[in-house]
């Protein structure tokens, strides 16, 4: 196998729209998970438990991972971390069962954003130019 075939077999980084949609999804997920962490903390506190701070730290760490991953989605590793964020959000339902709903909603949104982004990127690359610039009419072309 020569170097050219090895280079073409390597996975390509995500396209521009895939990265943008994935990042927006992860930023929104960061907010939802962070607010879930606050709910888990205060709910335990209101019930007189002693694991509220642990809940805040654990679920807050998932929110922080989502935020960091939003900055890394331009790479293949960022997309893998994005899937890890989905799994960890679902796992946070062990501490706060309502997080299962958040995990399902954002898991579907994550999958849809990756799929739509790849479709848009493929269409843009097939058209020859990612985003053509509009043309300005000359004064004699105006109506």
UniProtKB/TrEMBL annotation:
<keyword id="KW-0812">Transmembrane</keyword>
<dbReference type="InterPro" id="IPR025327">
    <property type="entry name" value="DUF4233"/>
</dbReference>
<feature type="transmembrane region" description="Helical">
    <location>
        <begin position="21"/>
        <end position="41"/>
    </location>
</feature>
<feature type="transmembrane region" description="Helical">
    <location>
        <begin position="79"/>
        <end position="112"/>
    </location>
</feature>
<keyword id="KW-0472">Membrane</keyword>
<protein>
    <recommendedName>
        <fullName>DUF4233 domain-containing protein</fullName>
    </recommendedName>
</protein>
<keyword id="KW-1133">Transmembrane helix</keyword>
<dbReference type="Pfam" id="PF14017">
    <property type="entry name" value="DUF4233"/>
</dbReference>
<feature type="transmembrane region" description="Helical">
    <location>
        <begin position="53"/>
        <end position="73"/>
    </location>
</feature>
């Amino acid at each position: 196998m020569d170097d050219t075939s090895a280079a073409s077999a390597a996975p390509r980084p995500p396209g521009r729209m895939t990265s943008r949609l994935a990042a927006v999804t992860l930023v929104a997920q960061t907010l939802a998970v962070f607010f879930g962490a606050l709910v888990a903390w205060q709910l335990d506190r209101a019930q007189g438990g002693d694991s509220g701070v642990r809940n805040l730290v654990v679920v807050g760490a998932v929110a922080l991972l989502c935020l960091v991953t939003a900055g890394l989605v331009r790479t293949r590793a960022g997309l893998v971390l994005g899937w890890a964020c989905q799994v960890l959000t679902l796992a946070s339902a062990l501490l706060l069962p309502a997080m299962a709903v958040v995990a399902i909603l954002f898991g579907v949104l994550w999958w849809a954003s990756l799929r739509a982004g790849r479709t848009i990127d493929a269409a843009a690359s097939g058209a020859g130019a990612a985003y053509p610039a509009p043309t300005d009419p000359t004064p004699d072309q105006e109506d």
